[in-house]
Design brief:
Distance between the termini: 127 Å
Largest sheet: 6 strands, antiparallel, barrel
Radius of gyration: 31 Å
Number of strands: 33
Helix content: 10-25%
Strand order of the largest sheet: 1-2-3-6-5-4
Length: 611
């Protein structure tokens, strides 16, 4: 009997306070927290050895209790006067470790909210040690600060430099990586763009989205959505493909919610759709555990993204850009223009001046990869239209891209070309545009269609004003017979006498001076910029221009050929310091363009004398 008693005492002795507290939490009467007013406990009142309870979802949408033993407070970790509470998680979290998606899990002591699980130890930590952002820091977000943080995470930023660093620059604790769930994306596209998101402390993982995640309108049950401890997602893309960032709700007063306990991208004021989430399981790991989840229904909008958390409002709607992408595989053996296969994608893209271009690039690359018609020798023909919310502007773009010996695949080049248009629109220095929708069609031609301007010929160099000159131009395609094209060029009646050049060129040569003018003038408004983009030549045409030795001025979106020196001097004198006039010693007056179903490159010049 004495031996049994001693053994029992020994067993009891190894039960840790955390394990004992976890056992008490198994009471069936314990219920997850609900929205509404809640008492808070400030970080200054939290002491080592206290027992707390965190709530997070391990499966489905119902939060479960997780015991937390308070280790202490790390002073000034976020900055002066901004402490972080350190705790050790037990229960199921001992097996899963502190997983991506737990960010924002509310932590309570005696029913009082102390903050949100937001940080974890660096990789390969054997214990589920977490950092808890005090609730008083998160409540500061309620002030609706309109300033933009200097450390905002954009595609060209380096988010790693914003993380707390320990000895030798290695972080002792780091923000819990936000799982960025990609639904409907191919593996090679994720691999291509994952480094972009890794810079921001978010992890690209394959996830899902419910059928209801097709528009930005809040679901009917938004009033009861996003209870503390439930999953919440910020929506960057929704529809046939989706991109959502997953975390956990910390606080819900019935209208406003706080979540994550750290930043999403630290953008500051934003308008991003906010959705519910459903957890399938947690993938445990000492390296990088993550929740595997689906975003389900839109229930509101995120309006603040700050270093201590995100703030959203239930029932509100955030604008997105509806995008339609049509991918067509053309039949090489059939009649010209016959379609062999076709896919149409509909999705919505988050509007933000730095993120929209990146998302447009990524979604187009994924759309191209979605058709099972890719071949080594291929050419892609793109036409797109972008409508603006003001109803006054419309952008129309066209291009062709073909396989080359360069290092980048054609889908990458094409999607970057498409995204660059949005980069120029959103980064003009006058006003951020509001877009209504975008539509793009891509035809996949199963051969390399590239033709280089090789030679040109005209029967006589001597011409008169008003004459029509017969011209023959020769292009050399990639593999195949030389292409000949005959056309007549009318000499303008008012042309000056003397020597002129007929320039036959590709789009790059024709665009060169206008491109230079646009790059030096940062203060064009949206209308001027759209006009300039619409004037850009397409690379599947050959451009015919008359070149004379008279100066041309490029000003804003305008081309002013054969400009008298006196007028140019007046313009230069009257311009402001923000207005740039680019001049060329010659005037190239475009006379016509010849369409080709090839990517045209190169140039050739014919000399003529006007009598």
């Amino acid at each position: 009997m004495q031996h049994r008693t001693a053994a029992a005492v020994l067993v009891c002795a190894v039960i840790t306070p955390l394990a004992a507290f976890a056992a008490k939490q198994q009471s069936p009467t314990q219920q997850p927290p609900r929205a509404g007013k809640v008492e808070i406990m400030k970080a200054a009142d939290v002491k080592p050895g206290m027992m707390a309870t965190a709530w997070t979802v391990f499966k489905g949408d119902t939060p479960e209790a997780v015991p937390v033993e308070i280790i202490g407070t790390w002073k000034n970790m976020w900055g002066p006067g901004q402490d972080v509470i350190i705790g050790k998680m037990g229960g199921k979290a001992q097996r899963t470790n502190v997983a991506g998606g737990m960010s924002g899990s509310p932590v309570y002591i005696d029913g009082k909210l102390i903050g949100a699980v937001a940080l974890r130890m660096t990789t390969f930590s054997p214990d589920a040690i977490c950092g808890i952002t005090p609730i008083e820091l998160m409540l500061e977000i309620n002030q609706f600060d309109k300033t933009k943080p200097l450390s905002a995470h954009y595609p060209e930023a380096d988010a790693q430099s914003q993380k707390p660093a320990g000895l030798l620059g290695e972080p002792t604790m780091t923000e819990i990586a936000t799982p960025l769930l990609f639904s409907g994306f191919s593996e090679n596209v994720l691999r291509q763009f994952a480094p972009v998101f890794d810079e921001f402390g978010v992890t690209a993982v394959e996830g899902g989205a419910g059928n209801a995640l097709t528009s930005n309108k809040p679901a009917a049950d938004w009033r009861t959505a996003l209870q503390p401890g439930q999953s919440v997602a910020g929506v960057l893309v929704s529809g046939d493909m989706s991109v959502t960032g997953l975390g956990t709700v910390t606080y819900n007063d019935g209208k406003k919610i706080l979540a994550f306990g750290h930043s999403f991208f630290n953008i500051g004021p934003i308008d991003m759709p906010m959705s519910k989430g459903e957890v399938l399981t947690i993938l445990p790991s000492q390296y990088e555990p993550n929740k595997l989840a689906n975003a389900t229904e839109i229930v509101g909008a995120l309006h603040q993204d700050r270093h201590s958390g995100i703030l959203g409002v239930l029932g509100e709607e955030a604008p997105m850009i509806p995008v339609t992408v049509k991918i067509r595989s053309m039949d090489a053996g059939g009649p010209e223009g016959s379609v062999r296969a076709e896919k149409v994608y509909h999705f919505n893209v988050f509007q933000q001046q730095k993120w929209t271009p990146q998302l447009m690039t990524m979604t187009l690359a994924n759309s191209i990869n979605g058709i099972n018609e890719l071949v080594d020798e291929a050419t892609y023909r793109l036409s797109g239209t972008v409508h603006f919310a003001d109803g006054k502007n419309e952008l129309n773009v066209n291009t062709m891209q073909s396989v080359t010996d360069g290092p980048f695949p054609v889908p990458t080049l094409l999607s970057n070309w498409w995204g660059e248009k949005f980069y120029r629109l959103y980064n003009n220095a006058v006003k951020i545009p509001e877009l209504k929708d975008a539509t793009v069609t891509i035809d996949l031609l199963p051969e390399r269609r590239i033709a280089t301007i090789e030679n040109a010929w005209t029967p006589s160099e001597n011409v008169r004003p008003g004459d029509e000159i017969p011209i023959k131009v020769f292009l050399r395609p990639y593999r195949g017979e030389r292409i000949e094209r005959d056309f007549n060029l009318k000499v303008p009646p008012g042309i000056t006498k003397g020597e002129h050049r007929i320039l036959l060129s590709d789009a790059d040569v024709a665009n060169r001076m206008q491109t230079l003018a646009a790059s030096t003038n940062r203060y064009m408004d949206v209308t001027q910029l759209v006009s300039l983009l619409n004037q850009e030549r397409s690379n599947n045409k050959l451009y015919v221009s008359l070149v004379a030795a008279n100066p041309t001025a490029y000003y804003e979106d305008k081309t002013l050929p054969s400009l008298p020196s006196s007028i140019l001097n007046v313009m230069q004198a009257g311009r402001t310091t923000t207005e740039t006039i680019v001049t060329s010693p010659e005037s190239a007056s475009e006379q016509m363009s010849l369409p080709f179903d090839y990517v045209v490159n190169g140039s050739y010049t014919l000399r003529v004398v006007v009598k």
